[in-house]
Amino acid sequence: MNNKSTKHTKVLILGSGPAGYTAAIYAARAMLKPILIHGSQPGGQLTTTTDVENYPGYSKVIQGPWLMDEMKGQAEAVGTEMIQDHISKVDLTKKPFTATGDSGQVYTADSFIISTGAQARWLNLKSEQEFRGFGVSACATCDGFFFKEKEVAVVGGGNAAVEEAMFLTKFASKVYLIHRRNELRAEKMLQAKLRSNKNIEIIWDTVVEDVIGTKEPKTVNSLKIKNLKDNKVKDLKVDGLFIAIGHDPATSLFKDQLKMDKEGYLITKPDSTETNIPGVFAAGDVKDKIFRQAVTAAGMGCMSALEAEKYLSESN
Hints:
Blueprint: E1 7-14, H1 17-29, E2 35-38, E3 51-52, E4 62-63, H2 64-77, E5 81-84, E6 87-91, E7 97-101, E8 106-114, E9 118-120, H3 126-130, E10 136-137, H4 140-143, E11 151-155, H5 159-168, E12 174-178, H6 188-195, E13 200-203, E14 206-214, E15 219-227, E16 233-237, E17 240-243, E18 247-249, E19 280-282, H7 294-315
């Protein structure tokens, strides 16, 4: 372990992405000199998104990675210290809060903003990752618009999968819902709505084995699907594939210290980003499994910085 001196800050922000960067912008402008710690790939899920059409303020399509670079630059310009490190341990039981990095550096903080986000679960197919952002997506509300009058498939059987399938019928001419079992886990009311939708066809007892497409230009043409009952493999012609098998919030670091729901999302007070520990705030997908949008994450990042500022001024 390196004997580096501890680094202290009034506001420690853990995780980048729209929530972390916005929290940093507000905290820095409040003269709190925040430190933001990010991993080796800053910017969160938006860095894996190509076209962004729904972030307010841009009349032309923008690129996800570009938007994150701009937010990062803005946070630095107003006075945020950015550090690349991987936090392996936190102690929120006593003040100041501490976080220890793999680098051996210990960070202490008077307040703590958690914006570590969530990752979509993937099928772990090589071809799925190859076409990610080029016909393969984990977010219908982000990318459904690009499939007007096209045929698409959704993989999953829970509420999210059913909601995504129904949402996609606003754009796509046909939606296949592919599920590995012969019944859905989604709520009964949602299932009834799904079945009454003429543009959705459910393919039961089936898994996606491969995504087939062209390299130049990069587009998805079809899926190789396998029926688990008779092991028959066939091609399904589609222009897009949406994976809706759930998200995993990056919260294992806070187990047994912060209250979370059964899926691991941090629980905050109503209309607030404050967790069960005063001075510790959570913003973005780490606490939000409903909206999961860049603009709502940014909004929560703003809230968390304003709440941290208020907390600090009251606890002095």
